[in-house]
Design goal:
118 residues, mainly beta, 7-stranded mixed beta sheet, 58% strand
């Protein structure tokens, strides 16, 4: 399953963007899809994750501003980002984990760049 992230761009502080992570096939019966980001000179960090059971987790830095959701029929996960701040500037990556027969698998998509100007 390949992941295609899109929706990044340049936005002013306070603005919004919606990222999409489209999978080329089924995400699996037991799965989690997450958004991570990596700013220049920093390590990749978790932004938000959502499981197929709709369990959701956010990093403290984006709580109340970002919303993760999924459309299982379209095998797509979204990240709605509101009230963007310059510190949100990063390359955003989607990550797919799934479990099958006791094994965990993981896949990364290419990133989409988000730049927030002050």
């Amino acid at each position: 399953v390949q992941l295609q992230a899109s929706g990044g761009g340049l936005v002013q502080a306070g603005g919004s963007l919606r990222l999409s992570c489209a999978a080329s096939g089924s995400l699996g019966a037991i799965n989690a899809v997450g958004w991570y980001r990596q700013a220049p000179g920093k390590q990749r960090e978790l932004v938000a994750t959502i499981t197929n059971g709709l369990g959701i987790n956010y990093s403290d830095s984006v709580k109340g501003r970002f919303t993760i959701s999924r459309d299982n029929a379209e095998n797509t996960v979204y990240l709605q980002m509101n009230n963007l701040k310059p510190e949100d500037t990063a390359v955003y990556y989607c990550n797919h984990r799934w479990w099958s027969e006791g094994y965990e698998y993981q896949n990364w998509g290419r990133g989409t760049e988000v730049t927030v100007s002050s």
